[in-house]
Amino acid sequence: MPTSTTPGTGWGEWSNLEGQLFCAPVPRHQADGRLALVAVGPRAGIITREILRDGTWDGGWTRISDTSDALSRPATLRDDDGLGHVFFNTGGGTLYGVRQTAVNGGWSGQFATPATGVKGPPFAVRAANGGVHVFYRGTDGDAYVIRQLPDSGGGYSDPVGLGPSATFPSAALDGSGRLVVVLHHADGRLCVRQEVAPGTGDYGGHVTVGTAAETVEAFAVTDARGQVHVFYRSTGGELWGVAQDPAYRGWDEPRRLAGAIVARPTACLGQDGRLNVVVQGDDDSARIGVQTAPGSHDYGAWSGFGGSIGSPAPVVTIAAHQDGRLVAAHQAARTRNAWIREQTWT
């Protein structure tokens, strides 16, 4: 069993949430803080399952989209009004969305965004002004962003190009209030572009923050001090990380954090202000590493969650309950069910 580094907590056992998923489950949060998962489910629809107010997952999976041709992993966020949003790609290459119609409530019918020619999973993040920004890779090999227009009743801008990216973009909001988007170049360079001012949607030039990055998705996350950390797989198959400096303007040198991994890493803040990073090792096991201190660029020893996830490699995700306990989730390769492992109080 992995060792929990958060005082007063341990890790429970893996639990089967079923679902027959066609992608890794993606976490989202209700306005009251309850954790939920979203995925592509049976008949290529978007499904969700949430923790009930009694603390159980007994409500089962609910279909929230009209489509029957959803592709790849959806993106989720909660807006300033407390309403959840889910974005997903379809077989026709159009980016669609659904949004909650009431706080902690049901969902609207799906709507088409102006984004077409979409390839792979989108990534959604809220800007400093509360606006919703959705990033994606186009079939032409470039990355794009659309953003929610103010006073438009939920409408979105036309796509704005961000330049070439050999895989799907990721983004995070830094402590200066500016969005940072991560892009891969075909030559192995890992680059970032940062908003020139908070909430504008205008981005500065490409800054190389890493080299020898394999074209597997990177993951961007903000730590307790507001610095963006980017985790990625190197061409040697190892986990590397790079982080902003305290002024949110420059970047440290990239560091090797762990040995052989497969698929995309993900990360989440724990109760004690430290980032927890989960990966899948090349032996099909999930592993977790934790910052040595809030804001540090160093990580302690990595421990395994135990059990085989299976191949082909699904992504392992991590998120926090409303009480701060962490939850790791993945899709079983053979049965396609969702499995979770939760921190428990000791």
Automatic annotation (TrEMBL):
Top-level taxon in the UniProt lineage: Bacteria
InterPro entries in UniProt: PLL-like_beta-prop (IPR058502)
Species this chain originates from: Streptantibioticus silvisoli
UniProt-recorded name of the protein: PLL-like beta propeller domain-containing protein
Location of the PLL-like beta propeller domain: 9-150, 168-329
